[in-house]
Amino acid sequence: DDDIFSSAFCENSEKLINVHLFALAAKYYSLSNLGVCTPLEDVLEALKGDSEGATGIKPDEFMNNKKSHEVQVMSELVDSIANYCGIKQVIDIGSGKGYLSSFLSMQYNLKVYGIDSSSSNTNGAHERNRKLKKHWRAYQSRGKKNLKTQSLEKANDTPVESEISCKTISEELLNNANSLQNQGQVIIQDLVPSSCGFTQMATLETNTETEADLVTDTQSHETKHSEEILAILNVLPADAVEDFSSSHYNCGELREEEKIQRKMTALKTKARKSSESNLYFPLTCCITAETELGDIITDLEDCMMVGLHTCGDLAANTLRIFTAKPEIKAVCSVGCCYHLLSEQFENQEECHDQVWGFPMCQYLKDKGWCCGRNARMSACLALDRVAVGQMLPTESLFYRAVLQVIVEEIYGVTKSDRHVGKTFSKSSSFVDYVRRSLKKLELDDSKLPDSCIMDYYEKYKHRMNELEAFNMLKVILAPCIEVLILLDRLCYLKEQENIAWSGLVKLFDPVKSPRCYAVIALKNQSC
User: Fold this and answer.
1) Which of 377, 419, 431, 457 has an alpha carbon within 20 to 30 A of 482's alpha carbon?
2) How far apart are CA 504 and CA 334, in angstroms?
3) How far apart are CA 522 and CA 449, in angstroms?
4) In this structure, are strands 303-311 and 89-93 parallel, antiparallel, or unpaired?
5) Which long-range contacts does 183-186 make (Cβ < 8 Å, 24+ apart)?
């Protein structure tokens, strides 16, 4: 109850007087408690029915635990959405080094364009794919060996079943789109309340081969298997990654002749590669809400957009592009870095042509809602990690707080465009930290003796516990602020007339990956 929770603060001073009540209120308004999320299991069931997921590579063998978890879960969902919509092209916005893109391409046989603003990331993706080719060869080699073993073990007992099983396993390894199972019909309206309007029904194709056909096919399977393996190895050959855009291409600043020249180059590349399919193409380009994807991807077709931890405004712009472009049939976006969002009502300056990251929905725009940078910074904190004992870096936060006092009192600087960054991990002491930080801020540290620096440290060190308590309150409040940002994006999608269904889905384990919620939407089939 709002009246009960408001008593956590003093009516006159507005100071916090009941921490327990404050924590309960924060939990009450967290996303996990509001009942607005659609369970991932329900989404997958509605999209895929009883079909089995692809088998093959395991991302944990060439990614860290966090990235492996994210890529494996999200790629399965993306593949399910792509199959439901009948599309084979995926655009990965903010693709970074291509972890998700390359996995979607290899594991699920999708043609993926990974777009990132950093040319160093694009180059890194190129090198990473070269290394992944080795892993893919190893997996295929192991798969062939296991396949033979399984076939020999079952040959005497049930020869027909063995041959059918053999064919099924190999087809899964080769990411064949056909399935041996009759997957039946899936009615997506069971996924969410009927008010969402998502009542389209998808009938998945069934395999009509008879058992006799399967037996005939598997008799020649052993001969064809090596050829199929070689074909799969061409999914990500070391020289197949085309970096269509070099770092000097900037979507917002391209002249007309540059666009024409780039289009011609891309078309020539497409013609040369016309015999290849299901590749991962990293592209270097800065994406804005006005970006024309057709200028970047010349063979743009019906596709879906994805984004794994798209930073700041990029998450909002991904949703805007999705709603504006008829070729994009679905979107799955997991945002991050809320502190980098631009806010329409944060400053009093009028910028009518500016496209803001927050708010997106008309309701909050009409309210003139503003979070502010401090609140957005808090939204980035990880309550679930703190809850399992991964405590906040109190000492580094204390160093940073005292540094701010020094900079304000000694240098008279209250605002700077420069950042200290990860100076704490490189510093041997507080004095060393301050001197390194002042250099980064381009402030003269020669007028500040070591004794003066240590005086500031001694003056405030007894308040370190206060700082820790304050930051714990920020952590408790973090989910509430994240709720506001995510619901704003969901409401924006609900306001669009061409959206069949949209929802928030918790994809990841929040301890492994704190930014774990995906905004998902599918367009009406007529759009």
Assistant:
1) 419
2) 10
3) 61
4) parallel
5) 183/48, 183/49, 183/50, 183/51, 184/49, 184/50, 185/49, 186/45, 186/46, 186/47, 186/48, 186/49, 186/84
Q: What is the pTM of this model?
A: 0.71
Residue 497, token pair as written in the block: 């007339």
What is the C-alpha to C-alpha distance for residues 522 and 500, in angstroms, rounded to an integer? 6
Distance between alpha carbon 76 and the CA centroid of its chain, in Å?
13
Q: Are 262 and 253 in contact (CB under 8 A)?
A: no
Virtual torsion, Cα 190, 193, 194, 200, nearest 10 deg: -40
59: preceding bond cis by omega (within 30 degrees) = no
pLDDT in tens, 203-247: 333 333 333 343 334 434 433 443 333 333 333 333 333 343 333
C-alpha dihedral over 161, 164, 168, 170, to 10 degrees? 110
Tell me phi and psi for residue 276, to 5 degrees.
-100, 150
| Residues forming a β-bridge with 114 | 92, 282
- Written as one letter, the residue type at 472 is M
Token duo for residue 125:
């993706």
Q: What would the two tokens of residue 318 be? A: 């991904």
d(CA 313, CA 329): 21
**b/e map of 148-181 (b: 16 or more CB within 10 Å)?**
eeebeeeeeeeeeebbbbbbbbbbbbbbeeebbe
- Domain map (residue ranges) of the chain: 6-140+277-387+480-523, 390-461
CA–CA distance, 191 with 25 (Å, rounded to integer)? 30
Q: What is the pLDDT of residues 68-114, one digit of tens each?
A: 999 999 999 999 999 999 999 999 999 888 889 988 988 898 999 99
Exposure string (b/e) for 58-97, b if CB count within 10 Å is 16 or more?
A: ebeebbeeebbbbbbbbbbbbbbbbbbbebbbbbbbbbbb
Length of the chain: 527
CATH of domain 6-140+277-387+480-523: 3.40.50.150
- Nearest alpha carbon to residue 495 among 305, 366, 343: 366
DSSP labels, 351-383: -TTPPPSB--SHHHHHHT----HHHHHHHTS-H
Side chain identity, residue 220: S
CB 113 within 8 A of CB 283: yes
